[in-house]
Every structure is written in C-alpha cells, then in structure tokens.
Amino acid sequence: MFKKIVGLWFSSKWKNAKDVWDYIKSMVDSWAWEFFTWYNPSYWYEKFWFEVSPNGRFAEHEQITDYDTLKQIVDEVHKYNLEIFANLNAWYYTSETFPLIKKMIEEFIEIWVDGIICWNIDILEYLKSINYKGKVNISTILAVYNKEAIRFFLENYKINKIILSREITLKEIEEFLNEFPDVNFEVFWEWDFCRYNNWLCFAEHKYWSKDICTVVVNDLIIKKKFKADYKKIILNSYSSNLEKINDFNDNYLNLYEEILDLLQKLDLWIDDKGEINERLVNIIYNSRNRIDLFFDALKPICSEHNQNIINYLKWLNYVLTLNLDVKKDELLSLKRELDNSVKSWILYLSKKIQEIGWETKLKALEVKNFYAKSDNLNLYSYLFFSKFKNLNTVKFPTRWRNYAEKIALIEDVLKNWKVRDENIDRWISLERAHYDLTYLFWDKLWFRKIVNKI
Question: CA dist 412 to 34, 46, 114, 426, Å?
C-alpha cells in the first residue's frame, strides 16, 4: 500500500501548542507515514507579504509562519519516528529572494527538518555546495517529463525521491518506474486536462466552468494547437493568400455540431441530398465507438451533453431508415445501448424523485454523491499503480473532496481483491475519470460497457 503523506496547512496564529500536538497525533493515528509543509517566516512575509511566495502557496493559513511553530511540528513528527519535508518549490526565485531562501535552509538544518522538496537548479547547486546532509526530493514543478531528465538529476545530485510532473500519462509513468527500479517516485493523479506544467499557462482553471487553456482538450480531442510550420505556410509561394488563411483557420466543429450542420443543409437542400446522407451515415458509423456516447447521470437532462446524446439518438434513428452500405447490425447495437443509457437513467431518476419527495432535494443528493463518491472509477488507476514497488505514493488534490472514503475504498479492494458492486453506481461521470484509463483497459469502450450494466 502507498505511503499516506500529509501536507500540514496552518499559520501559527491559528494553532497553539496543544493544537499542534493533537493535530499531529490525529494524523499519525490515521496512519500518516510522512509529512510535508510550507514555511513563510516573518522575514519573508513582512517584506513580500503573501503576494510573493517562497513555496507556491499564497495564503497565510496554507503555511507555517514562524520558526517556533515549525520547530514544534518537526519535534512532534520525530517523536513518532516519522519524517517531515519542507517545500521550496515556488515557480521562481530572484537575486533578492534567494538569500532569504538560504536563511530558511539554515533553519531547516538547525531544527532537523528531514529534507527539502525543491524545484530550482540553483537550490540543488546550493545544497550540493554546502554538502547538505538531509534528503532532497525533486518537486513536480521541476517538470520531469522524460528519462533523460531523470538521469540528469540522478547523475548530478544525491536524490531521495522524484515527484513526477502532473501532466504525464500512465504509459509514461509506467516506463519511468520500470526504467529506474531503484529510484523512489511519487506521482500526482486526477489532474485537470491542462498540458501545461502545473497550470503555468494563461488560463484560469475552475472545475465548475471547465475553463481550459490554449491547448484545448474537449471530448478527448485537441481542438486548437500551435502550428509549428507557420513560417512554412507563410512563405509557401505556391499557395494563395486565401489558401494560407484557410491553413491557419482553427475553427472547430465537434461531432454533434458537424452532424447538425449536415442536417440543416439537408433541410434547406443546400447540397445534394444523397451526398449529405452518405456523409451523415459515415460520421455516425465512424463515431460509434466514441467513449462519451452515453447519457451522463451526473448532468441534468437539459445539459448540453445529455441533449447531444438524445439528439444523437434521433440522428441515429434517421440513419437507420436509409439504405446502408455499412454494417447495420453495429448501428442497431449502438441504438440499443443508447436507448438503455437514456431510459434507464430516466427510470432511475423518476424512482429517486418518488423516494425522496421532490426534485430540489434530489439535486442536493446528486451534489452530495458527486463529491463524496470522489470518482470511484479512479480506483482502477490506484490498483494499477500499486504493482510498482518503487512508487512511494500517489498524491491527489484535496479540493472539495472527501478522500477518507477513497483511501478506505482502495485499501478494501487491495485487501479483498474485489471491487464491490456498490462502488460502481449511477453517480459516476466520464469527465471526472481520467481518459488515460483507456490505457489500462485497451478497449476504449470499457466505460460504456460498465455504465450499460448499471
């Protein structure tokens, strides 16, 4: 089983000595095996306040703000023969801030902080120059994306652990763990579809509105991307200006918009009817294995996704009335699957409304289940990770989620080697299950097959 590593979040003014003792003890009683924390002492925040961070945190309550409290925490953790690490993993340091970072390192050494989680080559070089005796963990912000980067750190520094970047895929993680069996790793999971390291792009990321960056992943398809050959397009003497403009055009129609566009042309007789029907048949047939073709139980019936599914079913019914050159039995099978997806959820919804009384209460129940269930499907990722002996732990963000239930669920499955039926239910959502899970199952329709049985 992975280590349970706990990040300690509080400023000194919110905790007294008794609170610290109780807090650490409660974590240890819950089987915490390692700790890490953030430190923003007075000589830093009185100069920079919390607008400039030494550790990537920007709120007072997210870090330790005085030396005495940090020392007390370190002493308490060591009473249980456990380790605590300090984060020095802000996005950047300057010539003005680096002397204060050195002062922090001196304090870490003085009170026996076990190690430093760092992202900066200058910090690594400084620790090397003073022959630092503590442990050094490579932060996820150092953006370790490939084997060459791992070799560089191992060859040049004494590394205790490498925390891989949040954005790498399951396949890449597996390759790294197998390539370096004697190196300790940590990985993050459940990231937010942002291919920029730790969200270092020009977008604001919010789960509820799904703001996403300039490289956009939608329906698991990259919609827009940088054109590396833009100079070639500009300088191409064989292309007209209009052709160049078309080459730079990044307008995107998703599957449902594309089908709707064809049907509108069909209604208006803009193009040849036979040609439109043929294109429509091909699009429907070629999209039959999309993993998102199911009615999503976590979304209201009037949501864009569910309306798309209902419309897709209507379009599919229209296609089935045509003389098909494709395999009709495959489309009939898809129709039965979609019918079941929609009808079973509507029946389930109707039954729930009758049981609990009214629709508003049902919505509250949906939200409760959404955050409490905490993506049971990601259980498969953790089971996949559990086979690697050199993977210390799998970290996941704690925003809005109850992870005590998830940890208990993982332990239960590892102990009994069985996924209980109650862990797969109508409250699951594809959007919250990482698309890399298809790497585990190979068959990309595994999720639809699960939903179809519920």
Answer: 22, 47, 32, 21
Handedness of CA 377, 379, 381, 387 (dihedral sign): negative
pLDDT at 263 over 60: yes
CA dist., res. 240 & res. 236, Å (int):
9
Check pLDDT > 90 for residue 97. yes
Measure CA of the first residue to CA of the last residue in the chain; give whole Å: 30
Burial of 101 (0-12, 13-18, 19+ CB in 10 A): buried
Amino acid at 359: E
Structure tokens at 248: 């730079």
**Residue 199 in contact with residue 177, Cβ under 8 Å?**
no
| 8-state DSSP, 343 | H
At 9-35, the pLDDT tens digits run: 766 555 555 578 888 888 888 788 999
The span from the CA of 368 to the CA of 6, in Å, is 25
- Tell me if 308 sits within 8 A of 256, measured CB to CB: yes
Q: 22 Cβ partners below 8 Å, 6+ apart?
A: none
113 vs 349, more confident: 113
Structure tokens at 4: 């349970």
Alpha carbons 454 and 451: distance in angstroms, whole number:
5
**403, 396 Cβ separation under 8 angstroms:** yes
Do the beta carbons of residue 373 and residue 427 sit within 8 Å?
Answer: yes
Residues 6+ apart with CB under 8 A from 346: 301
Measured CA to CA in angstroms, residue 382 lies from 53, 107, 379, 402, 406 at distances of 32, 37, 5, 16, 10
Secondary structure letter of residue 374 according to DSSP = -
User: What are the C-alpha distances in Å from 215 to residues 227, 415, 454?
Assistant: 11, 41, 35
**Mean per-residue pLDDT for 381-387?**
80
> 37 forms bridges with which residues in the sheet?
8, 86
Q: What residue type is assigned to position 399 of the chain?
A: R
